[in-house]
Amino acid sequence: MAQVVLLRGVNVGGNKTFRPSVLSKELGKLDVVNIGAAGTFVVRKPIPTEKLRSELLRRLPFETEVIICEGRDFLALTSSDPFSGEPARPDVVRFVSVLAQTHKKPPPIPINLPAEGEWLLKIISTQKRFLCGVYKRNMKAIGCLAQVEKLFGMPTTTRNWNTIGAIVKVLNQQIVQTRRDK
User: Fold this and answer.
1) Same domain, 55 and 103
2) Which is deepest, 17, 34, 61, 80, by most CB within 10 Å?
3) How many other C-beta atoms can be found within 10 angstroms of the C-beta atom of residue 115?
């Protein structure tokens, strides 16, 4: 099964900028699919995780956190429908924050931020390394994402639910192709 690579804090606000499409071409032997500009990749060829991490860090022009997950975990996440209790609204964004590693004892869920007053961000469920939540389209909500990292005590990187859908689409295409090849 493929691996999913998420780079933390790249191509945001002019910091740690690079061209993900160029990196994916440089890693062509690994059959890498670039998803968007935020440093999200699906690596379809088998490679040990630490070797993949080293290869990525060697090619990036800056230091960053590299979070690598199994593709099957993304498939499981989307099949569980983590947003079933949250109606879709135009003023709210669905997101997934991915922890650098599985948290041994996560805080009780749900989590509303700020803790007092009207919420700007809610963590509504967790699954392995994934924190699923929603935030209001409000500039102050971005600051709440940093609080999530502090609550869980480790680096996280966040992607829109639509990006998770794009990852799963690539993973499903690989599954179909593998079945055809057999």
Assistant:
1) no
2) 34
3) 8
Q: Are 163 and 38 in contact (CB under 8 A)?
A: yes
Q: Give the model confidence (pLDDT) of 49-61 as tens digits.
A: 999 999 999 999 8
> Distance between CA atoms of 98 and 78, rounded to whole angstroms?
14
Cβ–Cβ < 8 Å for 74, 5: no
- Report the C-alpha gap between 170 and 30 in whole angstroms: 14
Classify 102 as helix, strand or coil. coil
Residues in the chain: 182
State whether 150 and 169 are in the same domain: no
Identify whether 80 is part of a domain. no
Tell me the pLDDT tens digit for each residue of 93-145.
Answer: 999 999 999 888 888 999 999 999 999 999 999 999 999 999 999 988 888 98
In a domain, 59, yes or no: yes
Number of domains in the chain: 2
In a shared domain, residues 10 and 54: yes
Considering the domain architecture, whether residues 89 and 153 belong to the same structural domain is answered as yes
132 with 96: CB under 8 angstroms? yes
Report which of 8, 58, 3, 65 is spatially closest to residue 38, judged by C-alpha positions.
8
Residue 34 lies in a domain: yes
Distances (CA, A) of 83 to 28, 78, 116, 144: 35, 9, 23, 19
Q: Which stretches within the chain are classed as H helix? A: 20-26, 49-59, 71-79, 139-152, 161-181
